[in-house]
Design a protein that fits this description.
Blueprint lengths: L3 H12 L8 H14 L2 H19 L5 H9 L3 H29 L12 H17 L4 H14 L3 H33 L6 H28 L5 H16 L4 H25 L6 H15 L10 H10 L5 H53 L1
Helix pairs in contact: 1-2, 1-7, 2-14, 4-14, 5-6, 5-8, 5-10, 5-11, 6-7, 6-14, 7-8, 8-9, 8-10, 8-11, 8-12, 9-10, 11-12, 12-13, 13-14
């Protein structure tokens, strides 16, 4: 599968072409990035992951016929509602990222153009697709690249807004997870795993520590860096720290985005004719978010399914828990491959068209120079 070094090299090369008025250099970098993302190694990695999952599945005593029966009798109306609610998250996430971009550019004399809410949501969808097929959450870098490529904004500052978006996401996840834990404890129906409770607290501490390190680095380390690296870091710092304005609205949009994920799980449970405690419905998607953020496999493949089904077994039998986890992942993973892949492919086709259209004119210009 795609390595971190290869993606960052392509993204870095592409980010350096945004000043090209014809955008041909960026278009050619798009093609290079596409070839690596859709390389045979990516497909081979999925085959290996499927083999590992098959091995794990066959080692447990599970009545797969009961799981299949639950999936086969799913209520398609509730399932369609779950899909719709899931994709509503990109509206709220797009609005939040657009707000962060506006925050980061507040001091600019000529700020770069902001994407519309829907277009920002589409870029996030494409980044989720890249995260689903590439290691180490390369979709986050891809998101910054696409915006800087389209707007002419600094790649480093764009990456800073993406980091701020991720840090705010973690804060929202920990807040909602804590709420879910409180509901579970008050209800007394299910006791949440202590390990995840501790992990949530540790993540919140990590967010605070990361921001503190950035402030200290900006003050003490950045001035000593070589000019080019120092300039890039200052823009990255501006993008990250400058995003933290109008926080109540930013946080509220984050909560709405994650509540769409809660709604998706609730509707999937309804579609399968099952019942789960409200606190668990709130807790599980947050745990899902934490697990998918672990860059061990693309999109948390294999990790999320195991973790979510394990948490649901606090209240459901293993076959029902697996049915919920697998159906939920057809929306949160497989559908992202399809819709995000389609958006990604459409963008690459436009890039190909720009390269093709520009090739004759570049050849003519070269001939004239020789003459």
């Amino acid at each position: 599968m795609l390595s971190a070094e290869e993606v960052f090299r392509d993204v870095s090369e592409a980010s350096q072409t945004t000043a090209d008025p014809t955008n041909i250099g960026a278009a050619e970098s798009d093609l290079s990035l596409r070839r690596k993302l859709l390389s045979p190694r990516t497909g081979l990695s999925f085959v290996v992951l499927a083999a590992i999952m098959l091995l794990l599945v066959t080692r447990f005593d599970i009545a797969w016929s009961e799981t299949w029966e639950a999936v086969r009798t799913i209520n398609l109306g509730w399932y369609a509602a779950a899909v719709a609610v899931h994709y509503l998250t990109f509206v709220f996430r797009g609005a939040r990222w657009r707000l962060l971009l506006a925050n980061a550019a507040r001091g600019d004399e000529a700020p770069p153009p902001l994407p519309s809410v829907l277009h920002a949501g589409r870029i996030i969808l494409m980044s989720w697709f890249v995260n689903s097929i590439a290691w180490f959450r390369m979709g986050d870098a891809y998101r910054a690249y696409v915006y800087s490529n389209e707007s002419g904004a600094s790649f480093a500052r764009s990456a800073g807004t993406v980091l701020a978006d991720r840090l705010i996401d973690l804060t929202v996840v920990v807040t909602l997870m804590s709420t879910g834990i409180a509901v579970l404890l008050i209800g007394g129906q299910v006791r949440p795993p202590l390990l995840l409770v501790l992990a949530a607290g540790a993540l919140l501490g990590a967010v605070a520590a990361a921001l503190l390190v950035m402030r200290l680095t900006h003050r003490w380390v950045a001035p000593k860096l070589p000019s080019r690296i120092g300039r890039a870091y200052r823009r990255f710092h501006e993008g990250t720290m400058g995003s933290f304005n109008r926080l109540p609205l930013v946080f509220g949009l984050g909560v709405l985005g994650w509540m769409c994920e809660v709604g998706r799980l609730f509707l999937v449970v309804k579609a399968l004719g099952l019942s789960v405690a409200l606190g668990l419905v709130l807790f599980v998607p947050m745990a899902n978010g934490l697990l998918s953020a672990i860059p061990l496999t693309p999109g948390g493949l294999g990790i999320v399914e195991t973790g979510v089904s394990g948490l649901l077994q606090l209240e459901l039998v293993v076959e029902a828990a697996l049915a919920v986890a697998l159906v939920d992942r057809t929306i949160s993973y497989l559908s992202i491959i399809l819709t995000g892949g389609a958006a990604f492919a459409a963008r690459q086709l436009r890039s190909t068209s720009r390269v093709t259209a520009a090739s004759p004119s570049r050849a003519t210009a070269a001939s004239q120079d020789e003459a």
